[in-house]
Design brief:
The complex is a heterodimer of chains A (about 230) and B (about 400). Chain A is of the alpha/beta class and about 230 residues long. Helices cover about 35% and strands about 30% of the residues of chain A. Chain A has a single domain, classed as Rossmann fold (3-Layer(aba) Sandwich), CATH 3.40.50.300. The longest helix of chain A is centred in the last third of the chain and has 16 residues. Chain B has 2 domains: about 180 residues, no CATH class; about 170 residues, no CATH class. Chain B has a 6-stranded mixed β-barrel with strand order 2-3-10-5-7-6. Classes of the chains: A alpha/beta (about 230), B alpha+beta (about 400).
């Protein structure tokens, strides 16, 4: 489904140049359930941003569904972000002024979906994540776990094949964290490719593939049972 | 993303910060209101002046004779001959003097005494309120009759009907035969503070027999210009090539001059007011920049969810255009209201040309686009990864 070849990401210029990612090669197949683990500052969020087209690699190639993406323009990239990828962030990233329902509708507005369909879909998704009684609440009126469930509903709005979750449980207590992970696992069982960034070994242990990253390099990549490389 | 959704979004984020939106709008409101007020006042007084000039008379050509030298003397009889010039249908020679007019114990100083003939009333559109105008015969026979302006009538006679009463100018006793309808003031001073006599009678009040001015009426507006050129040839011969000796004016010429002046005036006033609109625009830009910075994270979220650069650009641009557009509309109402208040307070005319209203809406929208473009493109150009990191 996605493949990175020799991806490098540097920040700064000239003497201040600093490589966050160095020669990253990674292939994730459709339907996988993978975790990316590593200490903070190891480059995992940057990797996730590149995977989600929120950031662009300084060099190297990124194939998305078999297509090289480095030549794509802003409009095509925003369409991929819109329809192919669902994001779940550590800090939820809901828009504070909008209700839960409106937050879930947002990606569908950018996809030009009619207001009636938008509303119906947003209601359906919020019931799916168990928030049918919280639809008109604003994010600050919801608990962390509830906010993250809104964010998951939002990520699912356009039924994207790939879900990227950047420390989705980082700001949650263990109970709601477990619920979120179970929700993501359920989605994976339904066929979505799920990639989770975490530094929680327990969560990583539940995934079917663990990609370990240190100082911008992948140092280990193992599938449940067998080690894939190195 | 459909434009309707952009407008809804802009509306919501403006409602969210009501005070800030209003204060931002205020700059545009004041700008547009001052453009509307100043231009409508300028246009109002311009149309007043134009109206006054038109009141001078229709198809009017006026010849002014310079009071210089023996050669330039122009007698009443000579002036009357101008009537025989092609396209000219009426001629009214004018002898001017300023005198004190007395009725019983009442005096009115420095009154404009106009000696002329019956044609004068037709050419200048003067009508009598009471009595009648003087006849050709009375002019020929040098009768001591007078038609007085309405102000003179009120000042000297009060509630008494002046017709048939006798007034005195210098040592001449004149019988009032008519009172003019009030006409208001024109460029030549008040038309109501005037006493009209037969030219022959008036000549006896002045030391010289020269004519200061001749009013002519062309047969139609179309022949004013040919009549003028024939007239100018004729007078050229008469004054032996001395072009300084006389000047010919017609209404359109005066109108053009006045209109040019008033247009310059309204453009200048409008321009000054437009500067305040510009300042309002800078206010919009300022607030939009603040708002873009404040909403950096929101922009990052929207981009991550699939908003393209164009979507973000439009979001902020439409927000700024909505601010300036609503500001413009409120400004128009404010401007119209304040123009009417000034009109009532100062008793002057106002006129709202539709062009200025459309122009100020258009201009304020343009201000919104122009000053919104930079903040909006800054928002659109943000790197989503960095925007999401913004606290």
């Amino acid at each position: 489904m996605i493949e990175l070849k020799g991806v490098r990401k540097v920040y700064g210029k000239g003497k201040n140049e600093f490589a966050v990612l160095e020669n990253v090669n990674l292939k994730i197949e459709a339907g996988e359930y993978a975790s990316i683990i590593g200490p903070s500052g190891s480059g995992k969020t940057t990797l996730m941003n590149i995977l989600g087209f929120i950031d662009v690699p300084s060099s190297g190639e990124y194939y998305f569904e078999g297509k090289l993406t480095s030549k794509l323009g802003d409009l095509e990239l925003s369409r991929i972000r819109n329809k192919k990828i669902g994001f779940v962030f550590q800090s939820f990233n809901l828009i504070a002024e909008l209700t839960a329902l409106e937050n879930v509708e947002l990606p569908m507005i950018y996809a030009n979906i009619s207001p009636q369909k938008r509303l119906a879909r947003a209601r359906e998704l919020l019931s799916l994540v168990g928030l049918s009684d919280r639809m008109h609440h604003k994010p600050l009126e919801l608990s962390g776990g509830q906010q993250q469930r809104v964010a998951i509903a939002r990520a699912l709005a356009l039924d994207p094949p790939l879900l990227l979750a950047d420390e989705p449980t980082g700001n949650l207590d263990s109970k709601s964290g477990r619920e979120i992970i179970e929700l993501l696992e359920g989605l994976n069982r339904e066929g979505k490719t799920v990639v989770i960034i975490t530094h929680d070994r327990e969560i990583a242990a539940r995934t079917k593939r663990r990609i370990e990253i240190l100082d911008g390099r992948i140092i280990r990549d193992e599938k449940a049972g067998a080690e894939v490389c190195r | 993303m459909p434009v309707i959704a952009h407008f809804k979004m802009a509306y919501r984020s403006l409602i969210r910060k009501k005070l800030r939106s209003f204060l931002t709008m205020l700059g545009v409101i004041i700008g547009v209101a001052s453009v509307i007020t100043l231009v409508s006042l300028a246009q109002g007084s311009a149309s007043d002046i134009t109206e006054n000039i038109k009141n001078l008379g229709s198809n009017l050509i006026s010849v002014n004779i310079s009071p210089r030298g023996f050669l330039n003397t122009f007698t009443y009889e000579e002036a009357l001959k101008l009537k025989n010039i092609p396209f000219i249908q009426k001629a009214a020679p004018v002898v001017n003097t300023r005198q004190t007019v007395v009725y019983l114990n009442n005096k009115y100083d420095n009154v404009n005494i106009v000696g002329t003939n019956g044609d004068y009333f037709d050419i200048r559109n003067l009508k009598v309120r009471q009595g009648r105008v003087f006849t050709e015969e009375e002019v020929d026979l040098r009768r001591n009759v007078a038609v007085i302006g309405s102000t003179i009538a009120e000042e000297l006679f009060g509630n008494v009907n002046p017709v048939g009463k006798e007034i005195r100018i210098k040592n001449k006793i004149l019988t009032v035969i008519g009172v003019l309808e009030p006409k208001g003031s024109t460029m030549g001073g008040s038309e109501d503070e005037v006493v009209l006599l037969p030219a022959t009678t008036a000549k006896m009040l002045t030391s010289s027999s020269r004519i200061n001015q001749v009013y002519l009426q062309a047969q139609s507006p179309d022949v004013v210009n040919p009549a003028k050129s024939i007239l100018s040839d004729y007078l050229n011969k008469k004054f032996k090539g001395d072009e300084e000796a006389y000047r010919i004016f017609d209404q359109t010429q005066i109108l053009e001059t006045v209109q040019k002046t008033t247009n310059t005036l309204s453009a200048m006033l409008g321009g000054i007011a437009a500067i305040s609109l510009l300042v309002g625009g800078i206010g919009i830009m300022n607030i939009m920049l603040v708002s873009v910075t404040e909403r950096t994270r929101e922009i990052g979220i929207r981009k991550a969810l699939g908003a393209s650069k164009t979507d973000i650009l439009l979001q902020f641009l439409i927000e700024s255009v909505v601010v300036s557009g609503i500001g413009g509309i409120i400004g128009i109402f404010t401007g119209v209201i304040s123009a009417y208040l000034i009109k009532n307070a100062l008793n002057i005319s106002v006129k709202f040309p539709p062009s200025i209203i459309l122009l100020s809406i258009g201009f304020s929208m343009l201000v919104g686009i122009f000053f919104g473009l930079y903040p909006a493109s800054r928002a659109a150009g943000m790197n989503p990864a960095e925007a999401l990191r913004y606290e």
